[in-house]
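G.,

No rush on this.
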Amino acid sequence: MASCNRRDFLLFITAGMGAAALKGCEQPYRSNFLGSSTTETPSFAPSFKSVKGPMPLPTYEQISGADHQAISRKYGKYEVIDDLVLPEGFTYDVIASWGDPVGDSRCGYNNDYLSFVQTGENQGFLTVNFEYISGTWGQNYEEVIGISLPIAVVKQALEAAQSQSIDAFSLPGKDPLRQAILEISKEGLIDMGMGVISLGRDSEGKWVRTYSSVDRRITGISGWTDGRYLKATGPAVAVFRQGGRGYHDRLGDKIIGTFANCAGGTTPWGTVLSAEENFQSFVTESVHPDGTSFSPSETPFSTTRGLGNVLGLAGNKYGWIVEVNPADPEDYGTKHTWLGRYRHEAVGVRVTAGKPLAFYSGCDRRSGHLYKFVSSDRVIDPSDRQNSRLLTSGMLYAAKLYPDGTGKWIPMAAKTAVNPDPASVHIGGAIALPLRPEGGSFVATTDEEVEAFKKQYKTLGDLYLGDSQTQQGAILVDAHLAASAAGATCCARPEDTMIAPDGSLYIAFTSGGGDRNGEGPDGRIFQGPGGVIPHDPGWIVRLIEDNGDPDALRFRWEMWAAGGEIFQGGLGFCNPDNLEFDSQGNLWMVTDISTGSQNKSVPPGRVNQAGEPLASRDLMGIYGNNSLWCLPTTPPDAGQAYLFAIGPMECELCGPFFSPDQQTLFVAVQHPGEYNGKRQNMASQFREFAMTGLDGQEFIQTREVPIGSNWPGKNPTDPPKPSIVAIRRQNLGAIV
């Protein structure tokens, strides 16, 4: 079945792409483009036997696509396990869980990106992102942390006001309700941010905590009372320091905390970059034309959202990339504003001696853009700690992708022309643009609205105010809307960006649907196999800069791998997210299926009660829990996906990171039991799913699904806790 799968896969490659795309690039992995062929690269032989998922896969066992009876017999019944399921011969050790001590604080909630920086033989620093708090945080807080919170008081106030939110920022300072909201908000923000944990490997080969003096937390309220402010560099500092039209926190370039820390990246000089993603859940995203924030009142408190409201946090100080040196106990982070403010998911770091730095990142929203920062100065020594200064001067670019597989980088500068794409080309038929003179945004739903906008504003400089420095800062503060106005391609939730050993860029585009406001990706670009739109299972895209240069302004791109069912040209995974390369050049990927879609029943015939075919977003339940995959990048097996691990119930697997010796794969297990909380009395349900075989024929699978989670403790009374694990072979050999 491998050849059949590859054939379907090749049909999905963008027309005109192939080996010719690498002309002029001196790269060791020329065969990464699947349109090329070679007899020199040996076939990928996985060093593990894939685990059995709920969906038939040709990489799990050789079953003929025509043998429908064998498939329905083997997959007619399936049991979901509330554990981290690994191949035979592998195990995992829990390094830290929510609530464990870290420095003078605790391990936060919903651990995401992981970075291991080795400092010596069998020792190093593990830097961890803590992204957000969800409903189970409040349910289990007292049991795990040992402190009660006035959650019931606030819920009563919300019910009495018949409202889902409260503007605590506008309440008097001594108001009891304001104080209750302040207490909840502070504790929630403490459980976000970053953490540095020192590790050592013991005599049995396990990584264990060593609790050094360097261990510390950088929380969402660092600087609030302890003076541990974060710093800032770049043009937006001028915006932070001025009064301007909007809200001003009077702290200048000092910043209170970091939160919504999702994925990230690690530099060759030993620092870690943390991406502030969905900051709009906690502070106000909208800004005025001069880059100053709207009032905190615009984002009121609501249980786990609006936590920055009561603290009066200025929204324009969040949504950045934070750089931290884990080895420096006094370093609480620097936000480099040349990298832009938007819903950052990750950072792909490209550092080449004699060339400028290139940092890639995506904005994880259903119309978000792909960005590249290029430094003004060049790298001399990639391992030099002074390279951080290169992040203080350069230019941010946004990507324009064309259907023929080419593209260009558009500078986010005042002189750049305003030229947004028509509303009609987007899935959802809309595009958000800067609203002037009020600030914030409006959603254009017709091509006529977009044309009128283009006639009114000629350059980005017409949309943003201030002297040259402040105006540039305002553009960076409002990067998403500025990029839309400049004609950057609206993408399909770009999440991780990872540099391959050959210098090419791999991008996880998680999902191709539209959002609630009608915004969505460009349907000319983001099409599923056979040209289907929307394609909710997502893609992995590969991008090659012209001549392989990090500062090139042109590039080529291809749809390198498609999520989805095998018979439709997908590889069996759904919603790709974080990426990581091993030392052999294989790409490892975790998935991000939304909790509400995991194991959601799919009725026979895949139709709703009215007899209408289900949309692709309603079929996500067939993929089961979130999972971890290995994808070889060289022919003849490029275009295959091997299922390595399946996560516990209602979780997301995040931040895979290999130790330098490749014997350990660090993984973050985020929000187990996110919807149903603690699993009670080992409860489970039997659900039916209309599955398909490799040939597309339907069969019914009866699946046993645990309700809630007890992971990682796994005892019937244990609360679910986000945790960091170290995956290893039981014989301590290399994973690949």
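When you get to it, here's the other one too:
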Amino acid sequence: MAQARSGLTRLGLGAAAAVPLGFLAVFFAWPVAAIIGLGLGRTGVGKTLADPATWDLVAFTLGQAAAATAVALLAGMPVAYLLARCQVRGRGFVRLAITIPFVLPTVVVGLAFRAVLGDAGALGIVLANAFFNVAVVARTVGGLWAHLDRRAEDAARALGASRWRTFLSVTLPALGPAIGSAAAVVFLFCSTAFGVVLILGGSRLRTLETEIYLRTVNLLDLSGAAALSLLQLAAVIAALVIGAVARRRREAQLKLRAAEESLRRPRGGEWFVVAGAALVVLALLVPIFGLLLRSLSTADGWSFDGYRALATGGTQGTLAVSGFEAALNSLRAAGDATLLALVIGLLAAIVLSRVRRRGAGEALDLVLMLPLGVSAVTVGFGYLVTMDALPGDFRTSPLLVPLAQALVVTPLVVRLVLPVLRAVDDRLRQAAATLGAGPFRVWREVDLPLALRSMLAAAGFGFVVALGEFGATSFLARPEAPTLPVAIARLIARPGELNEAMAYAACTLLMVVTGLAVLVIEKLRVGTGEF
């Protein structure tokens, strides 16, 4: 009986794994391979790789990503300490304030920094990318910091070590796995940033991602785009491998520590760290308030003209629909993408939580994370090249946008739900199975109640991420059905004060919806998860 039940469980896991793998094969691997193959089949790839300008592009991409990662680490560490160790009023607001930037659409952040800094060049790109990712550092590092045993630090202090030396010799090495994991994720996000670089860099400053977009859309240089996509893919895989190693070390340390947070009122020099965290939060709020003020500012003074214009298509019919209709398109597409990503991501998380062979689990985890780092432009253009092979004219289907957005959301769902499933005591499952429960009933009675809050949080988190997805959506959204980020980009591209005011008003609308969603997510917050 036990062997039959074990065989049934393995069969069920195999079937569950087939769903996300099949989805990735058809809607990720196939389109990306088609574009790369199409490009490599033409002449010019070697010329692109031999061109010094290509390596200047690589250097700028990696350099700005490294600089933004360093800034995010420096800004996120005091916030991580406050959330992990300090019992102060306003901790909930701090958590909310750092989370909103991470889920804001890239177009919104780009315009917010342009409103505050103007033409800041590379500095603006670095600060905007760091702005996005303070939450990754604070949550990932803070999650481990909250579980570290204070007794090792207290012993070092009792032996005469200063607070700074204790941090460097005891705390920092213990936090190494979390810092490495956060740095790898932040570097991945920054090196593949699209909307921010497109808005703040313009035609002067380009990364691999924006150059792939330029060569694919404007120049139709598929061989050059394919060569750049291969370079980007190599960097992405390297970052994912480093992140996976660091994540495994982080999870191993978490298993050795108590699960309860140890909060206390700050003492002495700790108030300087709290003050540093407060300054970081204030700095994160500046672009948000700058965007809000810019949406109300016109040449004639303060006005709601931009918000009123959302009921129209902009100056001289810039948009085929009104701004409010574009917002409804975004909500529908994001809802469909979230539902799809939740099903696929949950199945993937179940499989990863049950796989006992480390190599197989890590390989599957790496494959699931790839859509976060591969050019969204490559994926979007790949859809247009390959989807006509499916039944019907799938290239014009409204389902393409939710499918592309689900690719981005699914890895985030996995990262939020998987730690909770891995934390479930396997003895509970064994006890339920001993009492005669089948695999599905074990999941329903044991895993589901414990993972439900994280699943709801993942759904809310995925929804706001899909709401602001711009890279692939800009390729796939039909002119008569643009999403709000695509509509904002079109408004910016067309001259006219009303178009610009409408773009900033639309950004503010997206920001408000995102903030409300984050409030709901925080109400459902659980103590594990990477973001």
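The two ends are 41 Å apart (CA to CA). The beta strands are 297-298, 301-302.

Enjoy the weekend,
O.
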